[in-house]
Write a structure and sequence with these properties.
Elements (H helix, E strand, L loop, with lengths): L2 E4 L18 H12 L8 E4 L6 H4 L5 H11 L24 H20 L5 E4 L20 H11 L4 E5 L6 H6 L6 E8 L23 E6 L5 H19 L3 E5 L17 H12 L4 E5 L6 H16 L9 H7 L14 H20 L9
Parallel strand pairs: 1-2, 1-3, 3-8, 4-5, 4-7, 5-6, 7-8
Helix pairs in contact: 1-9, 1-10, 4-5, 7-8, 7-11, 8-9
The structure holds zinc ion.
The site of zinc ion has 7 residues, from loops.
C-alpha cells in the first residue's frame, strides 16, 4: 500500500500572508528536505499535487455567510466589519489577498488525502499544509481560516466511517472537538498545553462530549515544561487504550510540532526524539491513516519534525546527517536533536500536573468505554 505526501508550489505562493510565523517557508523546506532524502523516489511513496476544495465542501462545516466573507475580503472587496469574522490587522488572523484561494487549496488537499485513504489508494496520506484545527463554523481563529480537519472528518463520516482523531499540537483542538461534540462516530483526543497558560484557553478534562457524544471528546491538558518522558508517559496512558477500544475505521491525526523546546509560542520541552516517538506510537496503532500538519513556529524544527514523521509513515529511518544539497542551501546539519535539556524543579511540577490529569481522564472517560480507570 502506498504512502502519499500532498504538496505543490501553489501552496507556497509568495503573496500569502506576509508574516513568517505561519508562512509558507516551513512547507517548502519540509518538501525540499524530503526530496533531498529521496522520499518521493522510493517505492510505495507518491507525491500528490494540491487540489482546490469547492464551496460545497466548505459549507459542510462553515456557514455560507462566512465563506462568502472570506472570498470577498480575499479579493479586496467590502464584507462588512471583518472583526465579525475575527479578522484584524494586528491579531492572529490578518486579511491578505488570495487567502480564499490558498485556504481552499489546503482544504482540497486534506480532502484528497482523506479520499485516497478511504478509497484504498493509499494506506497513509500526509497533508502538511492542513491541520487548521481552530477555525470555527463562522469565524477564523488562531491562524486558521477554514477547518480542513473538521471538513475532512465530516466527509469520512458521510461515507459511513468511524474516525479516531488524535491531535498532538501544543494547542487545544477546539474547532474539531466542537464539530463532533455530540456524536459517537468520532472520538477526538487532544493533548495540549493547559488552557490556564495557553491559547485557546479550553480543553479541560471535563469537556467530555454531550448526548451520544458523552465520552467521545477527550482532553489531556499538560503543563509548561512538559518534556519527552512526561509527554510519552501520559500519551501511553490515554491514547492507545481508547483508540484500540474504539477501533475506528480510519485514524486522523493533527501533527503540530509546536511542542518542541525551540518553539517560540509555547513552553513545552519536547525534542525531535520525543516527537518521533509520538509518531511511531500513532503508526503502531496499525490503522489506515490521514495525517495533517498544524502548528510549529520555528521553521528548522518543523522541517525536521515533519520529515521524520513522513519517514515513519513510509517505514524509513532517515540518516541523521542532512543530505549535502539541502545542507548547503539551508544550513541544517542534523535531523535530530541531541540530548534533552534538564530543567530541574519545573519538570517535577509538569510531571505532577500530567499525573493528575491522566488520572482524571481515566476516571471520567475510561468507564464510559468499559475500560478500567
Ligand atoms: Zn498549535
Amino acid at each position: 500500500m502506498k504512502t502519499a505526501f500532498l504538496y505543490g508550489e501553489d501552496l507556497i505562493r509568495r503573496d500569502s500572508r506576509a508574516d513568517e510565523i505561519f508562512g509558507p517557508t516551513r512547507l517548502e523546506y519540509t518538501y525540499e528536505l524530503l526530496k533531498s532524502y529521496g522520499a518521493f523516489k522510493m517505492p510505495g511513496s507518491v507525491l500528490e499535487p494540491p487540489r482546490e476544495a469547492g464551496e460545497t465542501d466548505l459549507v459542510s462545516f462553515h456557514t455560507a455567510d462566512y465563506v462568502a466573507a472570506v472570498r470577498k475580503l480575499s479579493n479586496g472587496q467590502e464584507a462588512g466589519n471583518p472583526l465579525r469574522f475575527n479578522f484584524s490587522e494586528t491579531g492572529d488572523n490578518p486579511v491578505y489577498p488570495g487567502m480564499y484561494e490558498l485556504s481552499t487549496l489546503v482544504v482540497g488537499s486534506s480532502l484528497h488525502a482523506a479520499e485516497m485513504v478511504a478509497g484504498g489508494e493509499a494506506s497513509t496520506a500526509f497533508n502538511s499544509s492542513g491541520g487548521l484545527h481552530h477555525a470555527a463554523p463562522d469565524h477564523a481563529s488562531g491562524f486558521c481560516i477554514f477547518n480542513d480537519v473538521a471538513i475532512s472528518i465530516k466527509f469520512l463520516v458521510s461515507r459511513g466511517l468511524r474516525i479516531g482523531y488524535v491531535d498532538v499540537d501544543a494547542h487545544h483542538a477546539d474547532g474539531v472537538q466542537n464539530a463532533f461534540y455530540d456524536t459517537d462516530r468520532v472520538l477526538t483526543i487532544s493533548l495540549h498545553g493547559s488552557g490556564r497558560y495557553l491559547f485557546p484557553g479550553t480543553g479541560e478534562v471535563e469537556e467530555a462530549g454531550t448526548g451520544a457524544g458523552r465520552g467521545y471528546s477527550v482532553n489531556l491538558p499538560l503543563a509548561p515544561y512538559t518534556d519527552d518522558a512526561i509527554y510519552l508517559w501520559a500519551f501511553d496512558r490515554v491514547v492507545p487504550p481508547l483508540i484500540n477500544r474504539f477501533a475506528p475505521d480510519i485514524l486522523v491525526t493533527q501533527l503540530g510540532c509546536d511542542t518542541h523546546y525551540l518553539d517560540p509560542l509555547t513552553q513545552f520541552r519536547l525534542t525531535t526524539r520525543g516527537y518521533e516517538e509520538i509518531v511511531r506510537k500513532l503508526k503502531s496503532l496499525e490503522l489506515r491513516w490521514v495525517a495533517f500538519g498544524g502548528g510549529g513556529y520555528e521553521p528548522s524544527v518543523v522541517t525536521r519534525c515533519w520529515t521524520l514523521a513522513y519517514g515513519i509513515m513510509m517505514g524509513v529511518d532517515w540518516p541523521d546527517d542532512i543530505p549535502a544539497d539541502f545542507r548547503e542551501v539551508y544550513g541544517l546539519r542534523t535531523l535530530r536533536d541531541g540530548e534533552s535539556r534538564r530543567e530541574g524543579g519545573t519538570v517535577e511540577r509538569a510531571r505532577r500536573f500530567a499525573e493528575e490529569k491522566v488520572s482524571a481522564v481515566r476516571k471520567l472517560i475510561f468507564p464510559l468505554h468499559g475500560l478500567e480507570p
